[in-house]
Amino acid sequence: MPTLTMREAISQALWEEMERDERVIILGEEVGVWGGTYAVTKGFYDHFGPERVLDTPIAEGVIVGAANGAAMAGLRPVAELMTINFAFLAMDQIINHTAKLRSMFGGQFTVPVVIRAVGGGGRQLGATHSQTPDAVFAHFPGLKVVAPATPHDAKGLLKSAIRSDDPVLFIEHATLYQARGEVPEGEVLEPIGVAKVQRPGRDVTLVTYSKMLQVSLQAAEQLARDGIEVEIVDLRSLRPLDIGPALDSVRRTNRAVVVEEGWRSYGVGAEVAARIHEQAFDFLDAPVARVAQEEVPLPYNRELEQEALPQTADVIAAVRGVL
Amino acid sequence: MYHEMVLVRRLEERAAALYQEGKIGGFLHLYIGQEAVGTGILSVRRPEDRVITAYRDHGTAISCGVPARAVMAELLGKVTGTSKGKGGSMHLADVKRNFWGGHAIVGAHLPLAAGMALADKYRGLDAVTICFFGDGATNIGYFHEALNLSMLWRLPVLWVCENNLYGMGTAVERASAVSEIRQKAEGYNMPNDRVEGMDVLSVRQAGERALAAVRGHGPFLLEVVTYRFRGHSMGDPERYRTSDEVRKWQENDPIGIYRRRLTEGRRATAAELDAVEQRVEEELEDAVRFAESSPAPAPEELYRDIYVEPAAPLPGRS
What we know:
By secondary structure, chain A is an alpha/beta fold.
């Protein structure tokens, strides 16, 4: 099976969907002539033309707002936000409009928009450019929130997102673009809202997603050398949250750790832990442990930044802690 | 147009009474006094032209052809309402009639209008998106982002600023560095006009000119100076303006002006116009009866219309 980088997988998904459906357009900052600040849309402008690949001013409110409007009018726009931190400038559009337009008007129309946003820390970009606020967006009913960890899932989930009549926030991790993985030739479609076991194991259930899957897999390799077998559940979508595979796993392992890159307070780990407590409390032999970012705005200095972000050693310690 | 203006007026007066009776909840923003704006401009729109407005939307809905029954039912939160009782006063819409809402966040529907116009242009359709908003919306970033983008991409949008002189209780002069809103279009090199908004015939002419300017060319900003006779919403203490000022404007009631123009121009007799008013009363009685006797949305509706697949309550709730 061929391997692709995450960047190639996302780019392929966009390209294929644009070839497949003329209603798909891309708009955002530097998506056209520049080719995308993460080079995801390189070559798109020349191939699909300026009518379908639209360079916008730096104005996130109208980028998402115009994408919403175009979606209401029947197109399938893919709006790119250069970083998810800039999504805060479009927060009203995303939360008050993207997520609510359909239900607020009694289902008269759909809003089939995809908002691609790049998130995550670890590149020394300082406090405002390094956040992982995924849980914030997953809080709101009406939106679907997807955050893939592998090239295969990125391609399959993005294609599903573009074809979906529901609005989808598609979160890409800034440090995963070079990550490689196997992606089959031909059509790749993955369902939104379905978690996936990425590594089987019998001793501890580890629930994670996005970049933290890599970190968790490294931790699992090291723990395996000591005979500890970690089962890793990759959520892939944060809303709708498919908690089933995590619950099934916990019922076998009786122990759970949740690993996320965002802050612990009110985070993905909090939600997953609460669901496990609500639905599998009797199976637990230990409290659910959470690994997350230190509760600080992320500093610039490399060592300090890494200190604040969850590392393999933190995951290993958390797993040992629940055993 | 006379029928439409009277219908909007009487429907809102009736809505105000129903609000006082507790039959309408939430916020209720009345359009009373501004009827000539929506009626005049929308009298010259084509069916393919999209219409979108802010939360003072009852009149716009009626002018788009939404039946009074569906408007009243929505106000009463009934399943027969425009939005199945899920939207309320601020979220009327009827996309079959190309009326795209009713939007409650000041300025936020301007980017939506730009996007809809983008879609029509992309498809090569000769449709204009007519976007109404208040003077208050012109101070928020959305207005500037949307105007800039629409001019940059030559989007077929008619921006209609209904300048009723107050953003809630703050006079235009106290909120905007320029008191003529049309000046803001100059900053984007966008053609524009400013007209008085109490005479429906002159608004209609201005609308005709503006729509012609948009078709095939690009956006246009039309500022229409008007006045709302009622408070910003129900329960506005109106400390920001004098009753003298309100009275002076009420002497220029757009319905009275149009009635005079019709009778003095011998285009209709007083008796004919009285008959129109009587017809409106009957229509309204029917609308209220329909709304009151309509069922509320069923409990199952709670999880519908959010996603394509109906959502469901979370399991394991305590």
